[in-house]
Model the fold of this input.
Amino acid sequence: AGDVVRRDGAARSVAASRLAGDAADIAVRTRAVQTIFESGSLEEVMPILQQYGVTYVVVGNVERATYPPAGLQKFDTGPLIPVFSTGQTIIYRMPPNLQPDVTGVAQ
Done:
């Protein structure tokens, strides 16, 4: 019975540790998304997009209701390429030369 308690306790400890790690990772990614859509600076945003291997950025009604106009308008200044637009939604694509390859290194 003692072994079961220890294994169970160890499993809970490992699970709690993983959850804490996941929560920290989620917080980091949430801040990255906020920076991507709130910053008015492409110089600040492009390395984040490359770090996460982003190929497309969607600016739609949710983004327009959530983030400041200056944070969204920067996408119109390049180097992202608008590839689709309907109503208030625009989808931008990272240029191929700025997309990471499968090794995570920009081409």
